[in-house]
Amino acid sequence: MTTSTSWAAAHRRVLDGFSAGWHRPDPHAWDDILAEDVEFTQPLLRPGTGPVHWHEEARRLLVLAPDLRGEVVAWAARDDVMFIDVRLSATVGGAPLTVRSVDELRVTPSGTIARRDASFDWWPVALAVLARPRAWWRWWRSGVGPLLGRRRLLPV
Predict the structure, then answer these.
(1) Residues 27, 104: contact at Cβ < 8 Å?
(2) Which of 9, 45, 86, 93 could form a disulfide with 135 if both were Cys (CB 3.0 to 4.6 A apart)?
(3) CATH code for the domain defined by 5-142
(4) Planar angle of CA 65, 17, 90, nearest 5 degrees
């Protein structure tokens, strides 16, 4: 739901780019909708600023779950704030895993994301990795948290 018609085009641009990026994730899939100084916070990944930071974190996600996909379930927006409910699905350790995330986005009038705060319950992801030994090596190589300190042991 958009409450301000002056923001409608910006919301549509962000929603379309966000949805397309999760339909076929790649570290650069969201480049067209990321502001140069975009800020990120999300469970299991390092907070940071800029598209290059996101490229690295997205790459880590795809090391852990190469078949990761997302589907927008619902969204709402008012002026520079958008909420997008996305269902993320992947295979982790040979078994399916589905997680729902709600992303709060701060958007610009031109339709780029200035800030992304993702919120989801990360325990099902951690438990899936722990319970599935086939996932351990991918998880270790990915650098996805918890235990983000192990990143210094991984090749750059």
Answers:
(1) no
(2) 93
(3) 3.10.450.50
(4) 15
